[in-house]
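Feature request disguised as a bug: please show the residue count (150) next to RNase H type-1 domain-containing protein in the output. Example input:
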Amino acid sequence: MSSIRIKEQVTWLMSLNLNSQFQCFNFKGNWNDMFIKVEGATLTLDTKSITWKKPHTNMLKLNVDGCCKGNPGEAACGGILRDHNGDMRMSFYSYYGISTNNNAKINSTSKGTWTIRSELEQIINLLEKGHYQVKHFYREANCVTDIWLI
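Example output, currently without the count:
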């Protein structure tokens, strides 16, 4: 195969690839025309600031996510419940085993709402039965929570 034929095939393959990626260029023609168009191109990046927004006063916000390693693969989900100051009120994590990415994401929402409901039911049950005590501990005696919150 001649060098001219190889150059034509490479140019054709590159133009197919570039046309599939950048429809606005519409590459047709020879190597030099393609090179000039590519060299003259400018890259434009659109950016968008994405931030977490606090809920309204006296409201809570539950943020959840689920993912897996591979699809299907080992799946898990987690979430955090925060108040209007952005302070964490509760968090959870759950391992699903082998699942799909979509299943993990869908289950993260139901797991989050179930966890909140379960915790609230336990608190209400304790309050109704009167089986609770409120005690003060000095910080030095409560180092387990300090380690967990760091």
